[in-house]
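Weekly sync, protein design subgroup
Attendees: M.S., D.O., the rotation student, P.L. (late)

Item 1: inverse folding check
M.S. brought a backbone from last month's batch and wanted to see whether the design step gives back something sensible before we order anything. D.O. pointed out we never logged the input encoding, so this time it goes straight into the notes. Structure tokens as presented (586 positions):
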């Protein structure tokens, strides 16, 4: 499907293995790969840093904000999708390996990958034997079906997460979800002929279905334990760890799940005895805790704070604790089509021409944090096509062209609007300030409105009613692929079917029939080469609409602890990380 060169580029940019420390257990620091030791900068791009096979101890995570939800069926932040793999197994998953091996999808709950029909409209999975929940009860195919029903068809209770199943299952547009539909059979297009078999019947061919089956939405949920939005208070584990405690907005502690059988799980060695996560820790504090070995993982995986960057790059020893991969993500601004005057394409084009992208890149940290972008698809995602419909001298904006577009849209003197950004992401706030300065030069007065990451999409930028009523015309965001193809990148941010009452990521509210059709036709095409071409064509259609302003192809300057055990990390989800524990405490 890809040339060798493309495959290698994606592998090194998308998949890496990071060291992660944990407190407790042995403090052996240089044992020939058994735990601890040190490695050079970028050591984790293609290999495991500080590999360990020791059991025991505690692995500590911290993050600058809180989760949208730790419920596997009610999240769309990449880091939560990934963290949930500790307690929620899915039908398939990305292989826990560094380099290009990490791009492979492997079975998880299922004993093998999906078996498609000849037209790729029906997909069948068989579950492994011997799977159990934390209470010892068996995991069945009906529990996987129920998990998908609650996560995709009950936005009144679970507003986060993607809409792929709802959009592509037969009857998905009519099914009301398990809290409203009391019939015992549920959605008819998911069949469970026995406790080990689950069959999906789709409206159209869906060649990427094994990728979709990696989502935490397929982590099983026993219906009798489901409490809707309150299920997060007691998630029932199907993985190697279960919740010992959970405090909303503060953090959680996971301990071993005695009912998890490693014989049924070839992917997770699960070496630590305990895992902790703390929310709302200042990013500089998170960075310092990684540098001094107090914690093992920055759960957010978005890179160091701007204040930390000079410190780690100027000190050779500290630089050896870093990896600087492309995140397969693009930072961009969504221009909401329902907020005036961005319902006028010429007002949108004024922003496109007026943005000084170099100033935005410099504000977020310069070259170590990313390259100036001209497309939504980043170069490391399958389907990327190089083009620039709004090319300006040195990517610094063109004031004359911007003002000409303002005149065309009936706003010759400019206008006022609001720009959203995430308050606990210092680099994003700095980028927003740079955008504000660019816009001022062309007569657009921008007021910055900041919101916390954990509620950014559920309460603010992803809620159309809130966006409209508060005149949020420009919405700062960043996006990486749900899986490493153009469809996995574009569908949930550009397809009209992804617009939701809350928790949405199509912040532009783009519902263009031509774009929608191109996305749906592309994923239904079983010709791999044709699919690849289709994604670049869709990217151009979105650019012509001018509702998304690409800013930066992001890099993440990441820190590894000095003496660490290995956590394999991939960026197939949203440009962040899929934490699959392969190492333990030091």
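Designed sequence read out in the meeting:
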């Amino acid at each position: 499907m890809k040339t060798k060169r493309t495959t290698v580029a994606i592998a090194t940019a998308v998949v890496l293995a990071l060291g992660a420390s944990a407190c407790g257990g042995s403090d052996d620091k240089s044992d020939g790969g058994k735990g601890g030791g040190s490695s050079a900068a970028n050591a984790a791009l293609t290999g495991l840093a500080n590999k360990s096979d020791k059991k025991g101890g505690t692995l500590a995570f911290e993050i600058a904000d809180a989760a949208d939800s730790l419920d596997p069926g009610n999240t769309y932040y990449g880091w939560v999708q990934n963290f949930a793999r500790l307690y929620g197994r899915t039908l398939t998953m990305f292989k826990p390996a560094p380099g290009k091996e990490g791009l492979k999808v492997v079975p998880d709950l299922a004993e093998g990958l999906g078996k498609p029909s000849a037209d790729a409209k029906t997909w069948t999975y068989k579950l492994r034997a011997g799977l159990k929940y934390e209470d010892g009860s068996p995991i069945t195919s009906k529990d996987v079906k129920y998990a998908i029903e609650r996560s995709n068809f009950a936005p009144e209770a679970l507003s986060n997460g993607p809409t792929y199943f709802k959009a592509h299952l037969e009857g998905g547009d009519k099914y009301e979800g398990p809290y409203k539909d009391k019939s015992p059979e549920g959605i008819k297009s998911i069949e469970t002929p026995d406790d080990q078999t689950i069959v999906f019947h789709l409206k159209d061919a869906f060649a990427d279905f094994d990728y979709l089956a990696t989502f935490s939405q397929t982590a099983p949920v026993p219906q009798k334990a489901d409490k809707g939005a309150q299920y997060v208070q007691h998630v029932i584990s199907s993985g190697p760890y279960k919740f010992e405690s959970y405090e909303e907005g503060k953090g959680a502690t996971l301990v071993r799940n005695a009912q998890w059988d490693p014989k049924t799980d070839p992917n997770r060695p699960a070496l630590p005895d305990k895992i902790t996560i703390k929310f709302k820790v200042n990013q500089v504090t998170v960075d310092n805790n990684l540098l001094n070995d107090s914690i093992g993982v920055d759960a957010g995986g978005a890179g160091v704070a701007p204040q930390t960057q000079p410190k780690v790059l100027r000190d050779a020893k500290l630089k050896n604790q870093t990896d600087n991969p492309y995140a397969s993500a693009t930072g961009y601004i969504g221009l909401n089509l329902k907020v005036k005057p961005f319902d006028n394409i010429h007002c949108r084009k004024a922003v496109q021409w007026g943005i000084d992208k170099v100033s935005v890149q410099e504000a977020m940290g310069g070259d170590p944090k990313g390259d100036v972008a001209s497309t939504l698809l980043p170069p490391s995602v399958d389907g990327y096509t190089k083009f620039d419909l709004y090319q300006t001298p040195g990517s610094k904006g063109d004031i004359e062209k911007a003002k000409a577009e303002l005149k065309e849209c009936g706003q010759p003197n400019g206008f006022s609007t609001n720009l959203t950004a995430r308050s606990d992401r210092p680099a994003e706030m700095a980028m927003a300030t740079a955008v504000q300065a660019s816009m001022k030069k062309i007569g657009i007065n921008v007021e910055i409105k900041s919101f916390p990451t954990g509620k950014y999409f559920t309460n603010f930028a992803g809620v159309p009613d809130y966006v409209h009523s508060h005149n949020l015309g420009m919405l700062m965001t960043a996006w990486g692929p749900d899986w490493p193809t153009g469809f996995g990148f574009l569908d949930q941010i550009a397809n009209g079917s992804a617009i939701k009452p809350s928790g949405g990521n199509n912040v532009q509210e783009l519902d263009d029939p031509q774009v929608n059709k191109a996305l749906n036709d592309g994923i239904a095409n079983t010709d791999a080469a044709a699919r690849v071409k289709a994604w670049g064509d869709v990217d151009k259609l979105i650019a012509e609409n001018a509702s998304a302003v690409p800013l930066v192809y992001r890099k993440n300057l990441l820190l590894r602890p000095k003496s660490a055990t290995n956590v394999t990390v991939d960026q197939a989800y949203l440009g962040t990380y899929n934490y699959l524990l392969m190492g333990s405490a030091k």
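Discussion: The first strand starts at residue 15 and ends at 20. Residues 1-37, 568-586 have pLDDT under 50 and may be disordered.
Action: P.L. to compare against the previous round before Friday.
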